[in-house]
Amino acid sequence: MQWRSIVVGLVVLRLSLSCVLWLAFGLGPNVSWGFNFHLKESPKRSYLSFFDGNKDEYVRRYSSFPDTLKAKMKGMAKEMFYFGYDNYMKYAFPEDELNPIDCEGRGPDVLNPSNININDVLGNYSLTLIDTLDTLLVLGNVTEFQRAVKLVIDTVSFDKDSTVQVFEANIRILGSLISAHILLTDPKHPFGNVGFEGYDNELLHLAHDLAVRLLPAFENTSTGIPYPRVNLKTGVPPDSINETCTAGAGSLLVEFGILSRLIGDSTFEWVARRAVKALWNLRSNETGLLGNVVNIQTGQWVGKQSGLGAGMDSFYEYLLKSYILFGEKEDYKMFQAAYESIQNHLRKGRESCNEGEGDPPLYVNVNMFSGEIMNTWIDSLQAFFPGLQVLNGDVDNAICLHAFYYAIWKRFGALPERYNWQLQAPDVLFYPLRPELVESTYLLYQVTTLTSLRKMPKCGYATLHHVVDKSKEDRMESFFLSETCKYLYLLFDEDNPLHRSDNKYIFTTEGHVVPIDKRFREKQWNDLFPCEEGALAERKPKNPPLPSNISNCNRIPEERRYTLPLKSVYMRQIDHMVGLF
């Protein structure tokens, strides 16, 4: 598949708006897996009869979306962003995050270095401001973008005694600096002439400085898979563990690769590609699946769970996005093989999303070697996967999985961090304002609920500590402004420069905007891996042929492009599945 056919404009499959408003339906855990509804469809009934506006409650309620409502939602999304951003700047900057309940700033937990929930992310480098730079441009605020860039240039230094997670520093800080630099210097000026006098590539220099400080993670590792954490001053801590997750080690290639191609130094892309290939070569010979935790010295899998959520999610995402950006065929070969293994071993339920009988399609957690189900929960990070399926052209599967996650949202007004699909109840109850569902919604070009997110404390938007009783935790993570608000705004801003047909952009896993540009398909060096030709062919997984439930854009029936994408009978089934009836 050529990258142009994958990308489609902004890398957004822009379905007909009347076709995608089904997301606003109540979808939501009453039916455990293994319980079949035995849905019967009369062959004499036309498919379109399911969408008879006089008979179907979903169509009656959601078959249109007035321009006035879109404009209102756009304004609400912008208001949400500025409520969080302005209060961060007022009460928290230059610290990393805002505590929205106490109206205070938050930095690393220096008194408790083992508090990795905080210290993995917060490095004492004005995280939220940096992470938010390109969102300001997406919202059209050139003046504040320029002011924020100057603040970063004048106040941010990475010469800090902070031990951070390589993955988080890469996607939140490095990715944002690179994105903002590219948008500042882009000769196409998609957001207008946003540059300013005196800018001398300082953001790129900061990005380079940070990347150099992350490089020690790749040293002294027998496999080439990096250590999970580095100290920005001293390198890998002496007490560092030898275990890392697949996503953390294998989701560095987009940012490192762009940096290498901007500055003409292959080092960063080389180490990131080496880590991806090392992980790929550790996949199971039988299933083609990877585990979720690996020992970086021995190459042994410590965590043998294979799924789409935490610990694995962005590994798959970056295989495809790296191919789209860099055009390296091996990236797409790996993605194709990984996607085939996912469909063969993780996907359960009926063969087709919109046809037939049986349980709704669902992707479960399995043992990487045997393919047997390991548990009965899924996590909120998996909600990114429908968006990735859209990029891959598998719209049919994306629709069903997206419907399931939105059903959970409809029931709780948020996505619990873990949801047990057999017990039909949350296993882990908090919701830290994650963007994955909104991201997938945007890539399906649909609407989502703003009202659930608008219940805010005094100074910003707080993590939900409990999705049932709605108690809050005093933390607003940077991705709420850099991703969640950005995707919400773009859902309703049809005239945004990113949506113009002549502009082709892709989002990093942190939601940062980077152009699909021919300069990123050109290398200023001869060969990244001169001794590794044919590495991908070394171990071919023993999988059956690609199943028919992998579809592409052209396989969506013509009539479904102008109606609701999921038949009402299946919508109701998913409603029951998550307990809305």
Automatic annotation (TrEMBL):
Coarse class of the protein's main subcellular location: endoplasmic reticulum
Cofactor entry: Ca(2+)
Its membrane topology: Single-pass type II membrane protein
Active site, UniProt feature: 168 (proton donor), 313, 417 (proton donor), 436
Entry binding sites for Ca(2+): 509
Record localization: Endoplasmic reticulum membrane
Taxonomic superkingdom: Eukaryota
Keyword field: Calcium, Endoplasmic reticulum, Glycoprotein, Glycosidase, Hydrolase, Membrane, Metal-binding, Signal-anchor, Transmembrane, Transmembrane helix, Unfolded protein response
GO molecular function (one): mannosyl-oligosaccharide 1,2-alpha-mannosidase activity
EC assignment: 3.2.1.-
GO biological process: carbohydrate metabolic process; endoplasmic reticulum mannose trimming; positive regulation of retrograde protein transport, ER to cytosol; response to unfolded protein
GO cellular component annotations of the record: endoplasmic reticulum membrane; endoplasmic reticulum quality control compartment
Gene3D superfamilies named among the record's database cross-references: 1.50.10.10
Known function: Extracts misfolded glycoproteins, but not glycoproteins undergoing productive folding, from the calnexin cycle. It is directly involved in endoplasmic reticulum-associated degradation (ERAD) and targets misfolded glycoproteins for degradation in an N-glycan-independent manner, probably by forming a complex with SEL1L. It has low mannosidase activity, catalyzing mannose trimming from Man8GlcNAc2 to Man7GlcNAc2.
Family indicated by similarity: Belongs to the glycosyl hydrolase 47 family.
Xref: PANTHER family: ER DEGRADATION-ENHANCING ALPHA-MANNOSIDASE-LIKE PROTEIN 1, ER DEGRADATION-ENHANCING ALPHA-MANNOSIDASE-LIKE PROTEIN 2
Name the record gives this protein: alpha-1,2-Mannosidase
